[in-house]
UniProtKB/TrEMBL annotation:
Record-linked InterPro entries: Sigma_reg_C_dom, Sigma_reg_N
Protein name: Anti sigma factor C-terminal domain-containing protein
Occurrences of domain Sigma factor regulator C-terminal (ranges): 174-322
Superkingdom in the source lineage: Bacteria
Domain Sigma factor regulator N-terminal per the UniProt entry, residue ranges: 26-116
Annotated transmembrane regions: 39-64
């Protein structure tokens, strides 16, 4: 074979090899393209399966595990006994679900005079049975300390001598308010008394909430040395749909039932409430042994009638709460 023929043969071989490479690359590209689409389709299929499965598992958990009703009940009952003079309305509850989570949003109200006013807006997020997020937006003008200590409670036990409250200033603030106002006031007594005795002693104002002597209120410290806040119950009849005290023959008995119920979920109840520590076992045991006595109440009424309480020998201190324009019809 001469040089010319060798060149022709070499060129043919290179062309054939190039064609084979081109075919090979096309096959590779087609394989990669097909694999990508298979992966995308498989991923979409998994997502379409996972999302409804997650929602199904979520609904089953909140139906048969730690039920949504349990979480709502613990939330409602905790706020009624740890947040003085507050109430909730069922129609305000907004419940929604995402995979493994539940959102609960609602508004809290205070009775000032004869009307209920929005106090706080709650946004709670639960991951399964645990509280994962808590946001509270307040509408109040006078807010109790977010981090209570043993010396700054708004309701003070008769044996608590360590006070930071300037009660003389509070009476002067009340006196300076216009007569055409209704007031929420926190009244502490010199001695323990029954709730019935407290109501009978102050007939010209509404006693709306009573703090109960639980054995730790003398120092506001539990036996473990943790700061505790007052607990108590609404005194007035409450027939709102969501209230645990609705149609109750005895608010005192409902109060004890609530304490025993939220004791089963004390960690959750503590996270929901503004109190850092509820110390429910020792407080329940004390009340069962000593009975329900109050050392302080929340009252509401016309400014002049609340101011008149200063002359009563049972009243030790006062803390002014919310103030609104006249709405008293009596």
């Amino acid at each position: 074979m001469d040089d010319y023929e060798k060149l022709i043969a070499s060129s043919k071989a290179e062309i054939a090899n190039a064609n084979d490479q081109s075919k090979y690359q096309k096959v590779i590209r087609k394989t990669i393209f097909t694999s990508k689409w298979k992966l995308i389709c498989a991923t979409l299929t998994m997502i379409l399966l996972i999302v409804p499965t997650s929602f199904l598992m979520t609904f089953m958990y909140y139906a048969f595990g730690t039920s949504s009703t349990t979480l709502m009940d613990v939330t409602s009952e905790t706020l009624y006994v740890t947040e003085p003079n507050t109430s909730l309305e069922e129609i305000e509850f907004d419940m929604s679900f995402t995979p493994f989570s539940m959102k609960l949003a609602f508004e809290q109200y205070k009775r000032i005079g004869e009307e209920d006013y929005k106090a706080n807006t709650y946004d709670l997020r639960f991951f399964l049975g645990s509280l994962s997020k808590k946001e509270v937006t307040t509408s109040l003008e006078r807010v109790a300390p977010k981090h209570p200590t043993e010396t700054n409670p708004w309701l003070i036990h008769p044996e608590n001598k360590n006070l930071e409250l300037d009660t003389g200033r509070e009476w002067r603030v009340l006196d300076g308010l216009p007569d055409e106002t209704v007031v929420e006031a926190y009244i502490s007594f010199y001695d323990l008394m029954t709730v019935k005795e407290a109501k009978e002693a102050m007939p010209n104002v509404d006693v709306v909430w009573a703090a109960v002597d639980t054995g730790v209120d003398k120092t506001n410290l539990s036996k473990d040395g943790d700061v505790v806040s007052p607990i108590g119950y609404p005194v007035q009849p409450d027939n709102s749909t969501w209230s645990p005290f609705r149609d109750a023959s005895s608010n005192e008995e409902v109060f004890m039932d609530i304490l025993k119920n939220i004791e089963k979920h004390e960690e959750l109840a503590t996270e929901i409430s503004s109190a850092k520590n509820l110390a429910l076992p020792e407080r329940i045991a004390y009340i069962e042994k000593n009975g329900v006595k109050t050392y302080g109440v929340v009252v509401t009424g016309p400014k002049k009638d609340v101011l008149a309480l200063e002359k009563m020998n049972i009243v030790r201190t006062l803390k002014v709460g919310e103030v609104k324009l006249w709405n008293w019809s009596r």
